[in-house]
């Protein structure tokens, strides 16, 4: 079937699903199943077409709607963490991937540039901070900077600062995402330079084992905050087939959900930095365990689980539709 005929045959149903979403669970399951079948057909015969992209977006939105309206025995908060946040992460996966790639590119650029230009670290962190770090390395306690200050006050101060920075990432997304891109790139560069400061002294592996006790959750949350800002800017600049303000409202809603979702990550990361990172000398097995557990959690909850949840939704919708026949 030619693509034009395929569109003509199904266009009215697609527009109706978008403008007048099905009300009852049975209608939602039936419409979703039809849409998944259309999407499978389009991916087979028109894999690079805008029609395929449009159907993929509509299927994602409809699936999210099915789960948002699904009654759960658990509390509303539990439902948010179990379903809403992972599905929003999946729905906005392109923005998340873009934020991750941007952060990683500038991390690597700064890491290798700093190897050629040692003064770059002084420009970013200041002479006093760099000199103190170098003195700690010379004294055999390279990460001694994390042992200073009151643990509880450090936790609260770090937490408040990180949350403040993250909300700037998100809100500044309204300005076409440009400030968000700049700050996210700057953060990636800063960490790359910091890594090089230790790697140049033969402490590259120790850097990852110690700093990422708290850094795994903290950096993940920063990247997701950047993604939330990109979602906000993208929804206004590129509304697609929806009205601009309608698309912006949906983007803002998804962005807020992401920001709410990463708050615990900032709280826990700051707690780890204030109380546990400093234990790297006395309980290295424990800090290494925390780092490994954090990495596994991030990979599972923010990458694997959203995909599993989406695929499970497709299966549930198909089974529900089959049961109605």
Automatic annotation (TrEMBL):
InterPro entries: SpoIIM-like. The keyword Flavoprotein does not apply. The keyword Repeat does not apply. Keywords: Membrane, Transmembrane, Transmembrane helix. The chain crosses the membrane at residues 95-115, 152-178, 190-213, 219-237, 258-277, 283-305. It comes from the Bacteria. This is Stage II sporulation protein M. It comes from Niabella pedocola.
